[in-house]
Amino acid sequence: MPKFTTPTGSTQRYISALDRAQGDSVPGTKKVYADRAAFLQGLADERACIAMGLPVWYDGIDLQVLAEPAAVKRLWTLSTTAGSAAANAAASHGRTAVIAFKKFTLASDDNRVHASTGAPASGMGDNGDLCLDETAGVVYLKTGGAWGQVASLGGGAATPIVDDLTTGGSTAALSAEQGKTLKTLADGKADAFGAPMVVGFVGDSLTSFTEVNTPPLVARDIRGYGSHLIAVAGGAILPGKVLGMSGDITANIVAAMDAWLPTLTTERTIVLYTGTNDLVAGALTAQQLFDQIMSGVGKIKATGRAAIVGLLMPNTSAVTAPKIALRLAVNKLLRDARDQGLVTLVEWDDVPQQASGTIPVSILYDGVHPAPNGAERMGLRLYDVMRPALVPVSPASWAPVGAASPRIVNGVMAGTAGSVAGGASGVVADGWLASNGGTGSTAVCSKVASTDSDPTDWQQVVCTAGSATQYFEFQRQIAGGAGSFAVCAIIEVEVPDDASVLSFHLRTKSWAGTQPGRNHLQENDATKLYTAGTRRRFLRIPAMTVDATEAANMTVYISIEVAAGKTAALRVRRVGSVEV
């Protein structure tokens, strides 16, 4: 029971500060019970406190019963809606069991969770009990005296965990907290890579640029803020489904989410950015627009997913005083909601605006929609918000978008056994060819260590043009047969000055006489795309369907054009394909 004290001159009992600081009263901590009897006594004690109007535990606090399997966690459910304090006490319970992130609700306090190797024996447990088959990863429920399977968690027997980093092992399971903090083992005997986070996107035309499954607009991908989020995340983020309703208002977009959200599968986080067209129309109050945005947040959270909302950016179609005031007021309401813990924000409101107050075309190419540099800034801000939740991803299983595909062999650019041609020199990744062209130009290839969390080295080339434009490319023939797919890549371009790089692009060509797809990720006005410095890009060609002859004669190219007399560097780390 919690300790109570009575201040001098008062008959009201209260919980002292000492008790409020104890672990079972702080959100995010866990209450551990040595056996089942202690667990049931703890529930009874807490309900007694609730009946007196003095709840100590928080809703959702973790409860661990050591007599139950280590993979099982209990959650305390605190009722505050049953009516009286006595009714709240009766309704509150610790019957929710979480097993491998799936929730199961037991029928009563007396029900428990058992463990077995293989299907549970018929004589084990009582009706309403659960049993975890720790070998097959299957959860059973006992009803009518018989066990029936209710969930398959995947996996199988526990993987041995290296104890001394050299020999030996244990089949004891890691706790969830250990799994989060274990990043690597000292000598690499086990890897701690995780699965990438799949992110969905909802919004208007600014969001639709991230829709990588909609060919074949030139430069479409690199104007999507989600595309740049993917590029800087080092494989830790993959793009999911996109609901991009060009030209539409928030009310319609939020309404369309009702049909869209049930179609999602692996997407666990949704980025919601809407309100631009509402600002232009100017028909809503700040409170009305805020309420509509938060309605979308509520729908996302109701599916068990996380929601991230972008603050509204200024644009040249909403520059009257009332529309500026509307944008500022909506952003203030969103910030207030964030401060109350109601929403997670990405602060995009100052992305397009320079110190002079102008909005340059290099950021928003038409004053409303992001140019690649603007999308890059948005992607970096979004990545900063999401970074704490990300884990490194194995380079052996990662493709820039969607599932890994065998069409691009050695897409992680490993090794140094590749070839050079046309005056290129240095070392090139296994199976790849580096080809250079341009009077008096040089192209020096090398492997460069990653500077972020990604463990894969970059394949680099430093291009120095002579008296004419230099054209350089990495290339290799694809593998695989007929079908529909798209090729994508993560690259970095290092630009000493605005005029050094004329273009860079990802393309495919079938030497069987057709050219299934080409996507030049550059526009005629290079000032809209490049500023001095290093820029990381996500490139993706439109989806294509090829027959067996085309597939057997197809080559993928990553190319760069450098202006005469200039120097620039191109780095490639990821080339993959996705089936569409």
Number of helices: 12
- Give the uncertain stretches in residue-range form: 1-28, 154-192, 213-220, 519-529
Structural class: alpha/beta
User: So what's the CATH class of the largest domain?
Assistant: Alpha Beta
Shape: globular
Task: Please tally the β strands and state the result.
Answer: 29
Percent helix range: 10-25%
Tell me about the biggest sheet?
7 strands, mixed
CATH superfamily of the largest domain: SGNH hydrolase
N-end to C-end Cα span: 59 Å
What percentage of amino acids are in beta strands? 25-35%
Tally of domains: 3
The CATH level-2 architecture of the largest domain is identified as 3-Layer(aba) Sandwich
**Radius of gyration using CA atoms only:** 29 Å
Mean pLDDT rating: 78
Q: What do we call the CATH topology of the largest domain? A: Rossmann fold
Which secondary structure elements does this structure contain, and how are they paired or packed?
Elements: E1 4-5, E2 14-15, H1 17-20, E3 30-33, H2 36-51, E4 62-65, E5 72-77, H3 85-91, E6 93-99, E7 102-105, E8 113-116, E9 130-133, E10 138-143, E11 146-152, H4 176-181, E12 197-203, H5 205-208, H6 225-232, E13 237-244, H7 250-260, E14 269-273, H8 276-281, H9 286-302, E15 306-310, H10 321-339, E16 344-346, H11 372-386, E17 419-421, E18 424-426, E19 433-437, E20 442-448, E21 458-464, E22 470-477, E23 483-495, E24 501-510, E25 518-520, E26 533-540, E27 544-546, H12 548-552, E28 554-562, E29 567-579
Parallel strand pairs: 3-4, 8-9, 12-13, 12-14, 14-15, 15-16, 17-19, 18-20
Antiparallel strand pairs: 1-2, 4-5, 5-6, 6-7, 9-10, 10-11, 19-22, 20-21, 21-29, 22-28, 23-26, 23-27, 23-29, 24-25, 24-28
Helix pairs in contact: 2-3, 6-11, 7-9, 9-10
